[in-house]
Amino acid sequence: MSICAVPVEHGMKAFIYNPENSPAHRLNPVTKIISLSVVFTVSMLFNHPLYLGCLIALVACLGTVSRSLPAMWKIKYLLLILFLFPTCLWSIYMDGTPVLLHWGPLQISSRGLNYGIAMGFRLTGMLMAGLILLATTRVEDFTAGLNRLGIPYRMSFSLTLAFRLVPLFYDTFQTVVQAQQSRGFILNTGNILQKIRRTLPVLIPVFVSGIRRTDQLAVALESKGFGYRRERTRLHPIRFSRSDRLLLSAAVLFLCVCIILRLTGQGKL
Amino acid sequence: MGIPEPSRNPAVALSGVGFQYPLAEQPALQDISLSIRAGEFVMIMGRTGSGKTTLVRTINRIVPRFTKGSFSGTVHLFGSDIRTRSVASLAGDVGMVFQDFESQLFSTSIQLDLAFGPENMAVPPDRIAKRMDRILTQFQLTGLRDRDPATLSGGQKQRLAIATIMMLDPPVIILDEPTTDLDPESRDMVYRMLGQLRDQGRTVILIDHSPDLIRQADRVVLMDRGRIVRDATPVELVRHPGQLNRCGIRMPQIQECLWKLGLEPALSEPAEAAETIRKSAQTPDPKRYEILVARERSPRTGDPVIEIRDLLFSYDRQPVLNGIDLVIHRGEFVTLAGQNGSGKTTLAKHFNGLLSPGSGTLLLGGIPVQKWKAAELAGTVGYVFQNPDHQIFRPTVREEVLFGPVNLGLDDREADARVAEALETVGLTGYDDRDPFMLTKGESQRLAVASILAMHPQILILDEPTTGLDHPDQIRMMDLLTRLNRRGHTVIMITHSMTLTAQFADRVIVMENGSILTDGPVRDVFGRIDILIKTGLKPPPVTRLGLEFDMVVRSVDEFVDLCRPGGTRNESVHLQS
After folding, report:
1. Partners of residue A181 in chain B, C-beta under 8 Å
2. Residue A143 domain flag
3. How far apart are CA A225 and CA B119, in angstroms?
4. Are A140 and B112 in contact (CB under 8 A)?
5. ipTM attached to this prediction
C-alpha cells in the first residue's frame, strides 16, 4: 500500500487504494461503478450456493487481474467472519429436511446449511467486489465517477469523503490509545459491560478530534473554492475507452443472462 | 485574479470590525480598523486569544460565514465590499493557509491536491498543468507530483499547503501560524518562500509568535484583547520592549541584548550587532565566561535510568531507528532535537514501552523494558503527548487528572491528594470543576502534564510541550519543567525550539535519519555550529551573537551579564516578569 519513509503520525494515507497500473486501474470509474452495481444486483438475484460460488469465483478472477488480492488479504479475517457468521446462523436457525446434525436443542438441516453458505458467499462477494473498486480507483476518480452519473459534485464529494477520513480516524485512534496507555489505561479488561465503558477514554477523544478536524476541513475546502461553481474542470478528464465499452457491454450482457436464469427459476434453493 | 494593477485602493481595508462569539463575555474583536496596501508584508502578533485568527478570518469571510456570532463593520478588498460574498467565491482573491497543514491536504497525490483549487474555479486543464509546473518548481516539490501527501515530511507538507493556495494565484495571502510545527530549517524555507511571494507583488499577512522574524515585515500589528494596540514598523516596535512584553511577545533576542546594554536596538544580524557591541566597549568578558563554564554543573549526575544499546526499529519494513546507543541519567534535563521525521518521537515512545525495540536492548532502571508490568511502567515513565485533545475525555479537570492515579489502583484519599498536588504544581488550582474542553491551549497543555504528574513518574517525557503556545505560556511551561527537574524528575523533552533548549536544558541529543548525530551538554553541542547547520538546526540568535566573541551563550541574560563590568543586571531594563 502506501510507502512511508517514517511512521506518519497523522495525515491522510492511501487506505485501500493500491497504486498500480492494471487494466482495471485504467478503466473509467463510471464503468467500474456500474459493473459493481451489476455484481450487487446479481448476488441479490440468487440464493443458491453454487451460483453465488460461481459469482465469487468471477470476482476473485477480477481481483487477480486488477491486482487487488493484497487489499483483500489485508481484511482476510473480516471476510472470513462475514462468511462464517451467516453460514452458522442460518444453519442453526433455518428449519428443514433432511437434518444433518443433532446437538441438544440445535439441529442443522441441509437446506439451512446451503442457504447459510449462499448468504455467506453473497456478503463476502459483495465486499470483495467493493474492494476491487476501492483498490483500483483513486478517491478523486470515484468522486468524479459518481458526479458523472448525475450525483451533484458536492454530494459525490461528501459520499466519498468517508474513504478519505477512515485512515485519518484510524491514525487518531492509535495515537489516543497510546496517549491513554501512558496514563496506565488498559483497554481489554473486565466483563463486557466494563469493556464497553472502558472504550470511552479512547472514543471520546477520537470523536472530539474528529469533529474538530472535519470543521477545519470544511473551512479549508471552502477556502479553496469548493462548491463555488456548479461545473468544475478536471486536470485529468475521465475518458471512455474501448475497454470501457467492452466491459460495460459484458456486464450488461451478464446481467441479462442472470435475470433470464432467475426468471426461468434457476439459482433458487 | 492575479496581481491587480497598483491602485489607490488598499488591498485590504477593515473598518469598525467587531465580532463576538455566542457564549463569550468579551467580544473577540472590537472596533478594528486596519488598512493594508497592496504588496505590503504585515505581521500580526499578540498572545493566544487576542483575536489574531478571528481578525484574519474576516478577510475571506470565514468569520462570520462559518463561525456563529455577531459581526459588525465592513471589509473591503481592493475597494469592493465583500459583505455579500461567500468564502468559496473569495478563494481567488484571498488565499488562506492554516496552522494545521494536515487538514488542508486531502487528496491522494500532490498534483491532485494542487489541482483542487483551480478545478473548483473551472480553470481549463492545460492551464492548470502549466501553472502546476511553475508552482512545483517555486516550492521545490518537483519530482514529487505523484507522491501521496501523507508520506511527505512536515516541511514539505507545509510547502505543499502554501503551494495549493498559490495555485489559485491570489493577490492577497494570509498565513495563520504556518510554521509552528516545523523544524528550524523547514521554517526558514517557508519564510524564504513568503519573501518570494512579496517580491511577486503579493500582499502577505502573517500571524506568527516568533519575534525573531519581524525584520522581514514591513509592518507589525500588535493585538491585545480584541483590539489593535499598535501598528508600527519593526524598527519602531523594538524600541518599546515594554509594550511588546505587555502583549505577550518576547523581544527578538539580538535586539533585547542591544537594548539591555543601553544600545540602539537596530534590526541587525548577529555579526553587525557584535560590531556595535565592540564599538561600545561592552564586549563580553572571556574570564567571566571561563568561570561560568567551569561552574556549570556536570549534567550527568545520577545513576543511569535509561540505557539503550544498539536499538533498531522498523516500520513498514523501513528502518526508522538504526542503532541507537544512549544512556540517560537520573535528574538530567534532556532535549531531543532534530528535523521532522528524524525519529525523535519513535525513540521516545520506546522509553515507556509504547513501542518495542525491533532489536537491541533497552534497560529501564537496569531492568529490560519488556519485563516491566504496564501499570508500573506508566507510574515510572510519564509520557505527555503533543496534543492534549488526544487524551481529554472527562467532564471536569479534577476527574481528568484522577484517571491516571485510579488506573494505578490508588485508594481514593491518596488519589485525591495527588490530583490536588498535581494541579497545584502546574498552576491550575481552583480549576477542579472546570470543563477541560473549554481551557485555553496553554491551560490544557498544563492539564496534560498534571494528569501525568499525578502518577508520580520519576521520568517525564514531553513531546513538543510548547508548540503553538504564546511566549508567556511557553515560559510558564518551561518554569514548570525546571521546577520538576530540580525536585528530582528526569525530564526528556522533544522540541524544535533551539531557544528553549539553549536556555533550559542540560543536555541535547540531536537526531538525524534515525541515528544520534551528536549528544552532549548544551554548551558543547551549540558550539559545534557546523554540525547543527548540517541537520537543519540553527542555534538561537543570542548564541550566534555569542559565537562572534567565541563564546557559547545560552540566553540573553547570560550574554548581558558577561558584558556588564559589575556582572549585575540593570533592573530598570529587566523585561521578564
Report:
1. 354, 374, 378
2. no
3. 9
4. yes
5. 0.87
- Work out the average pLDDT over A188-213: 84
Torsion of CA B543, B547, B552, B554, to 10 degrees: -20
B27-71 confidence digits (pLDDT tens): 999 999 999 999 999 999 999 999 999 999 999 999 999 999 999
Q: Which of B435, B447, B437, B474 is nearest to B48 (CA)?
A: B474
Residue type, B82: I
Judge if A96 and A185 occupy the same domain: no
Q: Is residue A131 located within the same domain as residue A9?
A: no
Judge: A226–B345 Cβ closer than 8 Å, yes or no: no
Quick count: other Cβ atoms within 10 Å of Cβ B515? Answer: 16
Does A38 map to a domain? yes
pTM of the model: 0.89
CA distance readout (Å), B150 to A223, B139, B544? 21, 17, 35
Q: Which residues of A touch B408 (CB under 8 A)?
A: 184
Dihedral of the alpha carbons of B50, B54, B59, B60, in degrees to the nearest 10: 160
How far is residue B163 from each of residues A204, B89, B96, measured CA to CA in Å?
34, 19, 11
Q: Are A37 and A149 in contact (CB under 8 A)?
A: no
**Does A112 share its domain with A170?**
no
In a domain, A253, yes or no: yes
Q: How many CB atoms lie within 10 A of CB B572?
A: 6
pLDDT in tens, B453-472: 999 999 999 999 998 899 99
Asked whether residue B531 carries a pLDDT value surpassing 90, the answer given is no
Is the residue at A45 inside a domain?
Answer: yes
Q: Domain limits at A69?
A: 20-137+239-269
pLDDT band of residue A7 (cuts 50, 70, 90) is very low
Question: Which residues on B lie below 8 Å from A225 (Cβ)?
Answer: 88-89, 91-92, 117, 120-121, 168
The answer to whether B140 touches B174, Cβ cutoff 8 Å, is no
3-state secondary structure A186-244: CCCCCCHHHHHHHCHHHHHHHHHHHHHHHHHHHHHHHHCCCCCCCCCCCCCCCCCCHHH
Cβ distance B393 to A205 less than 8 Å, yes or no, reads yes
**In chain B, what are the domains?**
12-247 (3.40.50.300), 304-541 (3.40.50.300)
Is the alpha carbon torsion for B562, B564, B567, B568 positive or negative? negative
Q: How far apart are CA A120 and CA A159, in angstroms?
A: 27
- Structural domain total, chain A: 2
Asked whether residue A90 falls in the same domain as residue A102, the answer is: yes
